[in-house]
Amino acid sequence: MKEDLGNQAFEVSESRPPALASSGPPAVIGREIVVPKFVADVGDKAARRYANFFGAIENDNTRAAYMRACASFFAWCEARDIHDLAEVEPIHVGAYVKALGTAREKPTVKQHLAAVRMLFDWLVVGQVMLLNPAHAVRGPKHVVKRGKTLVLTPAEARKLLDGIDVSTVVGLRDRALIGLMVYSFARVGAAVGMKVEDYYSQGKRWWVRLHEKGGKRHEMPAHHNLEAYLDAYLEAARIDDAKKTPLFRSARGRTGALTDNAMDRVDVYRMIRRRARDAGLDADICCHTFRATGITAYLENGGTLENAQAMAAHESPRTTKLYDRTGDEITLDEVERIAI
């Protein structure tokens, strides 16, 4: 069954979810939406409503996460002989949330509950269900004042950047990409989504244009180091005139040649782990490390939280504050005052 949602078509097929919540959702290829048997058995209306719910989620990562969460819940229900949407009650949703909490972190549990609750709301509005069994269920309390993302010191970040072999176009690409995430606080999704035209001149300076979450277009001037990194990469890659093509391109095996395709987040993650290992840095470094590193370095050098928020394209300063590790050293100094 093919569901036509606006100008985009989604392939919708029926498939039973996996038996265990930990085994993941049914296969999703591209924009294909697989309707679990749990929902498809209710009828064509329920299947279409289900497909429309996920089809309306614009962000690919959010859609995939919510599909995994809902498929996991339906698999849990079927494993307990609950085979009909009408049989699902608040006690079942609560038991699922409690069971999930024994194996997953609190943010994951809250995300699963949010996905299930929103899906049931959508089905209630579409008159597929009478009541939302997840409405009264409360997730675990989770208050975060300090992020868990590893932050590099300025010396470590410099060691990583300077340690990249820039005698090849791949090395120049990697340095430019890491530099972009450090100096513009760019998310990896926005970085790999850049076109060549998203690095452009305005007046006497060069700017970068990032397409962030929620369709937000975020522009900011390029740091002079970032400008040097991007210029060197573009000159070596010879893609200056291909304005509509991907800026950061994948490499063709071990040949050292670039393809016409954009890197994806997995490519970037593997590259970062490889570069960090070569530099002798912590193995827990991830793509988000450089965003956190850039924000922390900015605040340590007298930058304001308000400007950091604007540069990071955060909706709330509380989110920006999670990346601020400037208080770590102060806290340690105070603890050492306990002279016993």
Compact description:
The protein is of the alpha+beta class. It is built from 14 helices and eight strands. A three-stranded mixed sheet has the order 1-2-3.
Topology:
Elements: E1 2-5, E2 8-15, E3 33-36, H1 37-40, H2 44-55, H3 60-79, H4 90-101, H5 106-125, H6 154-162, H7 169-183, H8 188-192, E4 199-202, E5 205-211, E6 217-221, H9 224-237, E7 249-251, E8 258-262, H10 265-278, H11 287-300, H12 305-312, H13 317-321, H14 328-335
Parallel strand pairs: 2-3
Antiparallel strand pairs: 1-2, 4-5, 5-6, 7-8
Walk me through the structure:
The protein is of the alpha+beta class and 340 residues long. It contains 14 helices and eight strands. The strands form three sheets. The chain has a three-stranded mixed sheet with strand order 1-2-3. Strands 4-5-6 form a three-stranded antiparallel sheet, with no helix packed on it. Helix 3 crosses helix 5 and helix 7 crosses helix 11 (287-300). It starts with a strand and ends in a 5-residue tail after the last helix. The model is unreliable at 1-30 (pLDDT under 50).
Query: Which H/E pattern describes the elements?
Result: EEEHHHHHHHHEEEHEEHHHHH
**Largest sheet composition:** 3 strands, mixed
Question: What structural class should be given to the helix and strand makeup?
Answer: alpha+beta
Spatial shape: globular
User: What separation lies between the terminal Cα atoms?
Assistant: 72 Å
Biggest sheet strand order reads 1-2-3
Uncertain runs are: 1-30
Average of pLDDT: 82
Q: Evaluate the radius of gyration.
A: 23 Å
Strand content: 5-15%
Give the proportion of residues in helices: 40-55%
Q: Treating each run of at least 4 consecutive H or I residues as one helix, how many helices? A: 14
Q: How many distinct beta strands?
A: 8
